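Manganese ABC transporter ATP-binding protein
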Amino acid sequence: MAEEQTPDKTVITVKGLSVSYDRKRVLTNIFLDIGAGHLYGVVGPNGAGKSTLFKAMLGLIDTNAGSVSINGKPVENSRKEVVYVPQKSEVDWTFPATVLDIVLMGRYPHKKILQRMDQHDKDLAHAALKELGIESLRDRQIGELSGGQQQRVFLARALCQEASIFFLDEPFVGVDITTEEKIIAVLKRLAAEGKTLLVVHHDLSTVPEYFDQVIFINQRLVTYGDTETVFTQENIAKTYSGQLPILHRTGMLDE
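Predicted structure tokens:
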């Protein structure tokens, strides 16, 4: 089981994080204190470094400067506590595995090398499939599913890990509205239980409805905090610098 979190306890500390690709600076001097029991929307224009921020925080890419700690420990010592759901475009959907196989992969951080799955692992997997409404798909090949079904599978895998911190990169892209509503309901439940969730998100019109915290980023940290406080026209303009953000619903931020 992941470490139990007290609401508002700082669980992730980012200090002076900077990242470059091919000598081009992508992220510069990012400082963040991420609290438990919150659902964070990470927003910014294309090329802002949102996905890079996740990968750097997770230790998946090299950084130029800075540090990241999770519950006061280095990232590499926190693998059981953290789960990452990448963009769909980064997944090999031709990989020959069933839905149940994929979901059970969430148990790998809890297993020794070559240790078999036990009944507890299988029970967790079936419970996750049931919550996401895809239990009937458990024997299907992952590549046969629709985009929305695939995204539900990867969230079920994340649930199966029993982590306390979730990173989800664009989980709503390419899914139907029913799947989107199902996913956000699960994420809100996890936050209410004291889990920490960070979600890269593009549709600004749903930010106030989905997230209680928002992080504005455009290669640098613009601002972050309570959605009611920082989700303003001024901060949107600062972040998007003239680029038109995605607004799928009308009436947002009416003045």
